[in-house]
Amino acid sequence: MGFFDALMGKSKQVNANLDSIFALSSAAITLQVSANLVPTNQAAVVFKPASGAAFANTESEFQDVLKEMNDVKVSVTTDSFRYRWVVIDGQDLETVVTASHAVNRSLEDHGFSPQLLCSLYPFTDTTDHSMVYWIYLYKRGTFYPFVPTGNERRDNERELSLKAVVGTDLPIETDMQRWFPLWEIPIHS
């Protein structure tokens, strides 16, 4: 970044530490013991598709990589906001974390990181069977909990308590204004 960029208020985009996604596997132990949350062995990568052959080739490439993973099932949907969801079902949390990392990495490596919105990882509460989602903000390299309660409502108190439960096991998003809700989640347990 040059002097004039700094004067004009422009900042250099910092690439997220994509490997921080792998912290979720170890945090899952804390979540199970301290919050009764077990992973559903699913994940989703959410991005805004771009037009053009380069993006289509990138999508085809990561879908081919996912097909090579024998213990992964993949489906792709588009929501009403035209975001694409690559939904991954696997045998265990480590598998879906690895598969979601591959999708994120492929988009990043081909220059489509601005298209990435987030990745999410659902967990089930063993006490009441409610869903809790851990959302990874690609551009920030951080996670936050999302606890929907139905009718486009969320349980903010529970989200804050889950933040406290994981402590330093996960890089948590400190700016709570970035803890945005996702209402049309195409993952069903």
- The CATH homologous superfamily is called Ribosomal protein S10
Q: What is the mean predicted local confidence, pLDDT?
A: 89
The total number of structural domains is 1
Structural class computed from helices and strand pairing: alpha+beta
End-to-end gap: 46 Å
InterPro entries: PspAB-like (IPR054383)
Structure description:
The structure is a single chain. The chain is of the alpha+beta class and 189 residues long. It has one domain: Ribosomal protein S10 (Alpha-Beta Plaits, 2-Layer Sandwich). The protein has five helices and nine strands. The strands form two sheets. Strands 1, 2, 3, 4, 5, 6 and 7 form a seven-stranded antiparallel sheet that branches. α3 (53-68) packs antiparallel against α4 (93-109). The N and C termini lie far apart (46 Å). The model is unreliable at 1-8 and 10-14 (pLDDT under 50).
Label this structure with key terms.
single chain; 5 helices; PspAB-like; 7-stranded antiparallel sheet; two-stranded antiparallel sheet; 26% strand; alpha+beta; disordered N terminus; 189 residues; Alpha-Beta Plaits
Describe how the helices and strands are arranged.
Elements: H1 3-7, H2 23-35, E1 37-39, E2 42-47, H3 53-68, E3 72-78, E4 84-90, H4 93-109, E5 116-125, E6 131-137, E7 142-146, E8 148-150, E9 153-154, H5 156-166
Helix pairs in contact: 3-4
Nutshell version of this structure?
This protein has 189 residues and is of the alpha+beta class. The protein has five helices and nine strands. Strands 1, 2, 3, 4, 5, 6 and 7 form a seven-stranded antiparallel beta sheet that branches.
